[in-house]
Write a structure and sequence with these properties.
This protein is mainly α. It contains 4 helices and no strands. The chain folds into 2 domains: 40 residues; 54 residues, no CATH class.
């Protein structure tokens, strides 16, 4: 079996690539599906964003109706984090804080 995989036969290489593509698609579907249950694995790392941002925004008591409160800002950041909008090139908001 192992000799067949490394023989370099074009059929084996195509089968291997198709299997890898199917596995990647299935894993993407699982991760994306678990977002429906509280965010799933997409929540990893958001705690560092929350810790970094909370000191910079006003509390709900001091909002005065002119700016967004901290709950609104954190909810918007979490929604963008779960949808992948904060994970774009040039954004340096990872877990290395």
């Amino acid at each position: 079996m192992s000799n067949e995989l490394i023989s370099g036969d074009l059929n084996q290489i195509v089968n291997f690539l198709a299997a890898c593509g199917g596995l990647g698609t299935a894993s993407y579907g699982l991760v994306d599906g678990f977002k429906a249950f509280g965010g799933g694995v997409s929540n990893f790392g958001f705690c560092y964003i929350r810790k970094s941002v909370e000191p910079l925004i006003v509390s709900n008591n001091n909002a005065g109706g002119k700016v967004f409160g901290s709950a609104d800002v954190i909810a918007t950041l979490r929604a963008n984090w779960l949808n992948g909008m904060l994970n774009r090139p040039g954004f340096r908001g990872g877990c290395s804080v």
